[in-house]
Amino acid sequence: MEENGYLWRNRELREHVAVIDGKVAPTKVLTNGIYLNVYTKQWLKANIWILKNRIVYVGDKLPEQTDGVEMIDCEGRYLVPGYIEPHAHPFQLYNPESLAKHAAKFGTTTLVNDNLMWLFLLDQKKAFSLLKEFTKLPISMYWWARFDSQTALQDDEELFNSETVLSWLENKAVVQGGELTAWPALLRGDDRLLYWMQEANCLGKPVEGHLPGASEGTLNKMKLLGVNADHESMTADEVRTRLRLGFQVGLRYSSIRPDLPEILEGLVAEGINTYENMTMNTDGSTPAFYEEGLMNVCIAIAIDKGVPLEDAYRMASYNVAKHFNFDDELGGIAPGKIAHINILEDKVNPDPVSVLANGQWITKDHACEPVNHQIDWQKHDIRPITFDWTLTESDLQFSIPIGLDMINDVIMKPYAIKTDVTLNQLPIMNNDAFLLLIDRNGKWRVNTTLRGFTKELGAIASTYSTTGDIVFIGKNKQDILLASARLHELGGGIVVAHDGEIIFELPLPLSGIMFDGKMDDLIAKEKELKLILKEHGYPYSDPVYSILFLSATHLPFIRVTQRGIVDVKKREVLFPAIMR
């Protein structure tokens, strides 16, 4: 089988050469365009020949055979490589397919994706089958191999063991290890983590860190232990420190950390004149943040802040491809590369007028072209949740003395509960709300309170969470029960109930985590949800992330998890989950 694969590849390569020899006609030819050569940082005029999904020629000539060839005159236009998002979390209400198709319309034709949700939702065989399905899309989809869950699971070993982790690392679609949110365990001597990191590096796959606020000493240690990259810099100083230690540094522009403009201002002011070891990313932003695109937005910010034009584009193309060791296929316009090409009206405007992905038109002169392949989610066992249990009043018994106090969208501190939580309705206009985390299979629950999320809302129920377990937040127990019943009818999603009525619902039929529809429709629904929550006292900017990170133990200081309420710093379960 392997031999046949090589023979097929040889035939393909011979066919590419035959195009140049005039024996085979190309599929498309882009004529008279000025393209960015990422290797010399020059803008050069050339004709670019494409056969099916590959660039086969870049130069002055035109092909001898043009019958049936699509000739595109790019006179006065500029061609750049398709943009690459190096750090995608493709499960933030959207699904990886809808995110990819939306991103491609704005020129981001490659995504490097978190695999965490596949670990929670699918066995390995089904997950790997789904990864193969994504290769049928014109957008290039690569994946991570997570080493930790970024929460406290009841049975962590079931998902994160050497057999599972190494199988993911060996998958050809996987290009990095991490992101490593469990780095404190590594520093405490977790040799299993170190072994997985060494295996990743031996396979030529970098390890992505998660090192917010890390000291210089910690950064030195992490580099020694095999962490190659980090995307958690919040200031220009933090970027500079990481660069000097040899890290590949991702500059973040996300819905909860839009740091990119300020970081770039600082770097340019300091006279940084080399950008080879920098990339940009959007770090799994919530849907509305992507209304105008992904990496095109980051490139525009970089250009506006004074980054040299060629470097701004390279940070979203060649630099990424070089870091992940797939620059033989992506990141540039050159013979042998996959035909991911963005056509621009002006080289200072990264919003493309036309986009080619894998040699197919995604948009052409601003008009969207159909992408024929659709993921069959049911085939891969991604379907609505079937509930065989019902939330009851006995589940709404709150007696724990410690709650979670919101400091911002995602940071929680413990506080002593003083409100009478035995009531069916908590007082309106104070900041306390019931918080219930319950197993999606109905086996256990954790009851506490959340301060700072709402002043008056009856209930919000969500199957969208870090682990896919169910979150309830609200003032009124009857509204919680009402929202739960509707959630069961939908098979998963987000439901808001108030004063005995359902006032909002967002079905998430793909395992209760992901929307199955167009990104534009999801963006509109997320905006509606934000408006409703703000009207009922949510004071921050990103309620979707607030819900997602309630269980995320890579953030301080206290979390509600499958094991119970956890003190993150002490790594202690303060109050265990209750079996139902």
Automatic annotation (TrEMBL):
Signal peptide positions (record): none
Q: Does the keyword Secreted apply?
A: no
EC number annotated for this UniProt entry = 3.5.4.2
Q: Give the reactions, separated by semicolons, that this protein catalyses.
A: adenine + H2O + H(+) = hypoxanthine + NH4(+)
| InterPro entries to which the protein is assigned, alphabetical | Adenine_deam_C, Amidohydro-rel, Metal-dep_hydrolase_composite, Metal_Hydrolase
- One GO molecular-function entry: adenine deaminase activity
**What single Pfam family name could you report for this chain, choosing any that match?**
Amidohydro_1
**What keywords tag this UniProt record?**
Hydrolase
Q: Which residues form the Adenine deaminase C-terminal domain?
A: 432-571
The record's comment on protein family reads: Belongs to the metallo-dependent hydrolases superfamily. Adenine deaminase family.
Q: Which PANTHER family match?
A: ADENINE DEAMINASE YERA-RELATED (PTHR11113:SF6), N-ACETYLGLUCOSAMINE-6-PHOSPHATE DEACETYLASE (PTHR11113)
Name the UniProt record assigns to this protein? adenine deaminase
| Natural source organism | Virgibacillus phasianinus
